[in-house]
Specification:
The chain is α/β, with parallel strands linked by helices and 339 residues long. 28% of the residues lie in helices and 25% in strands.
Length: 339
């Protein structure tokens, strides 16, 4: 079968690889759509932690059941999405129901080869059949789930004012779930077109120009109170470090972004706010289920979210273009030629 391999930073190549065969408890999925994530772009750019080359990228995946090993009760030909976080189910995190941060986790497209290929074998626990959604919608369930998990980590209430830093796909997921909680939601970005998109599509309560005086803008938008929750989805060290000084006293910070850097902050500023600092890694199966329910009942909006798409046979050139500044990409999806 054909696969796209990130051979080294900045280099993607088509390769002919052996088609996998499902073992007991595994499902062979014929890939239909692949969402392009910041993780893929960071890996391509050489900035992704927990990563080794060469690697088949891709972890936002939808498809159909092609075949299965023994002890699998999934109907062939049915649409599925894939939960890409393969956990050991034995470590302290897994024993406490937090397989999303398993000590031995293997994320598809990061720690093991992913789904930028025609077929992939996945343990049955991570393949979920569903209907009523397009393959492209199923391919963006994962990125929305990351945002949903961040909002759950913050335990957002209707009385909160939430600032989402970064209006990329994960930020948009966080925006939508924060809005569902009834909170006032602000969004910050360096790109005005993305801010306008969030205002038009998701009715955010305030826009913050990240290239301007962010602190003063927040002071005005919150009547001097500042956000009670800040969720960082930028992957930018300076943005992450700015959160301490822009947080309300008694507030919470959630770092969704993972960067290959140390993060520092002023301890008196941290302590005087009695700041709660949280990491948010991946998502849980419940987060995925909530996203699917939201897409089906319309409380979660995907309309206009996918701004760019291409076929698998032409994806390398398109992928390179999508990584360039000014590309205008909100969310890009790769569709298999046989879809």
């Amino acid at each position: 079968m054909k696969a796209v391999v990130c051979v080294k930073p900045g280099v993607l190549e088509y390769k002919q690889v052996e088609k996998p065969q499902p073992k007991a408890g595994e499902v062979l999925v014929k890939i239909k759509s692949i969402g392009v994530c910041g993780t893929d772009i960071h890996a391509y750019g050489g900035n992704q932690p927990f990563f080794e080359y060469p690697r088949v990228l891709g972890h936002e995946l939808s498809g159909v059941v092609e075949d299965a090993g023994s002890d699998v009760d999934l109907e062939k030909g049915k649409a599925v999405y894939i939960i890409p976080y393969i956990s050991c189910q034995e470590c302290v995190a897994c024993r406490n129901g937090k397989g999303n941060c398993c000590t031995n986790i293997e994320v598809l497209g990061v720690h093991r080869d992913g789904g930028m290929c025609e077929y992939i074998c996945v343990p049955k626990e991570y393949v979920v059949q569903t209907d009523g959604l397009s393959f492209n919608d199923l391919a963006v369930v994962e990125c929305f789930s990351i945002g949903a998990h961040a909002v759950n980590r913050a335990e957002i209430k209707s009385s909160d004012t939430v600032l989402v830093l970064g209006s990329g796909p994960i930020g948009i997921g966080a925006i939508q779930f924060a809005k569902m909680s009834g909170a006032k939601v602000l969004v910050s970005d360096v790109a005005q077109e993305k801010l306008d998109f969030c205002r038009e599509k998701y009715a955010v309560d305030g826009l913050v120009d990240a290239l301007g005086d962010v602190t003063e803008q927040l002071r005005v938008l919150t009547n001097g109170d500042f956000p009670t929750v800040i969720i960082d989805c930028t992957g930018n060290v300076k943005a992450m470090e700015s959160t301490i000084g822009n947080l309300a006293h008694g507030g919470k910070i959630v770092f969704v972004s993972v960067v290959k850097a140390d993060i520092s902050f002023n301890d008196p500023e941290f302590h005087k706010r009695e700041t709660t600092l949280l990491g948010s890694r991946n998502a849980t199966r419940k987060d995925f289920e909530n996203v699917v329910d939201g897409l089906k009942n319309g409380t979660l909006k995907s309309e206009g979210f996918i701004t760019h798409s291409t076929k698998f046979s032409t994806m390398i050139e398109s992928f390179q273009d999508w990584t360039k500044p000014g590309s205008g990409v909100i969310k890009a999806v790769i569709e298999m030629d046989n879809a």
